Amino acid sequence: MVKSMLGHARGCLVCIVACAVAGGGAFAQVRSPAPPAPPPSLAAETAGTGVITGVITAGDTGRPLRRTRVMLTNSETNANLGTAVTDLDGRFRFDKLPAAALTLKASKAGYLDIAYGQKKPGSGRAGTSIQLADGQKIENVQLQMPRGGVISGTVVDEVGDPAFGVPVRVMRYVMRNGTRELTASGKAGESDDRGQYRVSGLMPGEYVVCAVPRDELVLAAAQYESLLARMNEIRAANAARGTVDPNLRDNSSFGSVPSDPKDAYVTICVPGTTRMNEATSVTVDVGEERQGQNIQLQILPIARVSGTVSWSGGKMPTAGPSGGSTADTQVHLVDRSTPDTAGVMRVIHVKSDGAFSFTNVPPGAYTLEAHADVPMADPAPLQPGQRPPPPVMTPLWASVEVFVSGQPISNVTLEMAHGMNVSGRVVTEGAVDLSRVTVTALPAGPMFGEFSIPAAKVEADGRFTITGVVPGRYRIGLARGSTGAVIKSAVFSGSDTLDFPMEVKPGVDVVGGLLTAVPRFAEISGLLQDAASKPVPGFTVIVFPLDPRFWTPSSRRIQAARPTTDGRFTLRNLPAGEYRLAAVTDVETGEWFDPAFLRTLMSSAVAVTLTEGERKEQPLRIVR
Fold first, then answer.
1. Host H or E run for residue 372
2. In the predicted structure, residue 430 carries a pLDDT above the cut 60
3. Which segment of 279-283, 320-324, 350-354 scores lowest on mean pLDDT?
4. What pTM does this model have?
């Protein structure tokens, strides 16, 4: 089994908030946040008199880093304020800066990107904004750039000889949507003539290492099949036009048709498994090289898995129900041994006749999932000169499980169906205009492919019906564009889906939901300061509920904010309830959804109680 992430040993959490300055009290009502304005022009952003200078050094040697790219952006608008390149002494300078919260980042080949205030490198770790006042000069900002980690080893073939030119890929565990998933790191290596490989520039973290060999027989068969299919398409097009191309060769000119290979080299992960849930993970620290991640290739039986996507018992028509097209239909081959999105082995589009085929599938348990978006209704007649409005799409889906043992599997039928209905009614507390509210189903777990689940309009009596919800886990909440309200609770079968997602099962509509809409949620603001009332940079403020039942992936009751350099933080859109507030360093994005991590904060976190829609001022002090 894959090892647990460092046994939840998080390294240095450093400081936890130990006391709170008394404060609070309700503030005036706030409006729902308006959509962000487009970023202003660069000229408008850079009109100012502020100055920032600094120096970039190497984290391992301390020497200045020349030719390092330094970027400065507005933390709120994300507008680019300029780019500088360090000189021979590693120094940079920005002039004519506006009064604003600014983000400073540096990048250089061979080193990991780093942001000002960032304690450890990592794509999910935030830096600290620099709060620049009008005309202020901030000089000699220090940034140390760490080197990336390295994973190295040897790849040998099935008899132990060095394997040349084998791609080696590494995947890193990250927190995504509140759950720990494998994701491609963006780095890859390839074995040399000695079978040795080296993957460098890695972020600190936990990795799975896999060899992805290219089997020549498999490649040859795939190339022939692709060429043959292209020739047949050209012939069909010529036949439709009533023409013949004398230069188009007969299929026999390509030689004998190669049969599907019976076995081949397959993807192997350390320590020698084809299943990712059985892979041994390796932990890499900053600048660390983990050697000896050796892989021996295996030749295993492979098979073709093929079939047809159908609609109502027949071939899915090219015009489809209300305009659907097989060209837009995807089929996913999902390895069931890997529960998250890393289990998607391949994705293909079906042919015009609805046929699909996966070749070179190794033994294992798989799910075939078909997805397509089609318009909900036929387009209305247009007036002369009128442009057609964009269609409202709804998904079709199909799913079937297969077990591959080395023998071909054909005639698999994926019968497409509309999604299920989710219905209920909305009640209000306070001044809420239901005519401005639409609801939808929000995915609460890994989903293979993209779906256009329609939003449901709330009728005058509060009733709604969401159509086209494909099987999966969901929260029921507001659709984009709703204004003047938030959903306090969405109860189905006695459980609030906003806290405990519900499962939509194939062929079963979900009815009887009760949604409660209120004008606004609560929020917490404050200053993070030390005992001398000075701002404390480099921390992340985390709010989480007292009740561990709500410590769930992507919980709406768990939030984090990075204070600016003046110590100001704000945590918005929180339901009423009992909370705990803490500040930590060196935390990666999403780590605060991990119950084991939250338990480490309980003893020293500050108690906070929020009432419905309250805006609470809660200053915090760090006690070192």
1. strand 364-375
2. yes
3. 320-324
4. 0.69
